[in-house]
Amino acid sequence: MKDSHSSQAFWVVIASLSSVSIAIVSAAILSRYFGKEEYGTYKQIIYVYNTLLVIFTAGLPKVFGYYLPRFNLSQGKSVVKKINRFLFLTGFLFSASLYFAAPVISRLLKNPELTEGLQLFSLVPVMLVPTLGIEGIFAAYRKTRFIALYNTLSRLLMLICIVVPVIFFNGGIMAAVYGWVCASFITLTLALFFKQIPFKNITPEKADISSKEIFAYSFPIALASLWGILIKAADQFYISRYFGAGTFAEFSNGFIELPLVGMVTSATSVVLMPVFSKIVHEEGNKKEMIRVWKSALYKSAILIYPFVIFFLFFANEIMILLYSEAYKGSGIYFQVNMFLNIFNIILFAPLLFAMGKTRFYARMHMWLALVIWVAGYFVIQWFNSPVAIAILSVALAIFKINIFLYFIAKFLGIKVRDLVPVRSIMRILAHTTLCILSVYFALSFFSWNSIIMKVLAHGILYGMLLLLSSSLFRLNYIQFAKPLLQKFSK
Predict the structure, then answer these.
(1) Domain ranges in the chain?
(2) Which site in 21, 157, 228, 486 is 20 to 30 Å from 440, CA atoms measured?
């Protein structure tokens, strides 16, 4: 009997947990060893890479999850091989473009220190782009435990290669970038090995899929991703250009989603994409697709919201614990982004992609990208505040989610309230908010000499109150922890 969707998602969560944990550890270490300006420059290099990555991958990593469920293993091997060739080509083009565009990018961001770092970093894309798509391959064949293993190994390797030269050899930005290059080469070898695991001892058969079909599906996704990255890049560009590397360092450390949100939503998306694709391709069972989607949404809310509400109240303390007192200013950005975490559990992309609505998805992102770049310019002129830019970014992201919800409901011929379990979600939010307020006021009379003790005391009492009072709100948080505990006990 095949593993359940929850079981498959569990391993993707573990994969995300390892990625997020190692990323946080890396940021915490580098924040302490680099000065603010130096750390800001390093984060700008990563920002440029992540921005251009979406453009050059052309939506190809998404193709694995869409097409592989429609072919047998022998044909799947042929599909993977074909897409890998395209990934190698786009990786090479990415590296060449990054090298020659480095001086122009440095001038745009008003940071001359970027040129040398970007040109050295240009060796990375040609090695990392071909590693993409592993999640789609293993999710399609319901072997997501390999995603957890690969992510843990590759991210740990990246952490060691980047951090060791900085800590033990007093290296600066260039030492960290050299670490990226070294880790990328080893990761490429590891990824090529992992991509062959599902097809071990399988003789490939030619799959009835053309390059034209692949790009007909991936190109609209690439366009949407391009617009999406432009939406995401707008706040980073304006803050970097108008407020300097120091403010950008504070912003980039703080304006992040709660790691658990990314872990749960990415796991849900990876697992549901091939499921939805198969339902649409073979059965067209709209009711089953909506049932699975609503179930995933409710489970995500009951897992994520207790943490979102807690971190909303203790944003400043969390930033200090992670990055030191110098990054206390990151707390306001973290707090602003917590409001987005309430909404971005709603995953519209897997549903739209499975329904083949990639062109619509791309057009909507195009209009939203135009809005945020124009609006961002006026916000800078009127408010001259990096926090105002962050608020604009969150407001538009929430607007985007609601727009997509409305159109998905329209495509399916149902009402929005039939897509989202609104009452259940409001019940979770009411319960968690009442619990954190009760704890906050109950402990407000104490004087705390240690930030970590303050956070721990509030967290423990909050967790206890949450569990003890859950039955009053007809909620059961423990039932969603049982599958995790059972997995770990095996």
Answers:
(1) 5-489
(2) 21
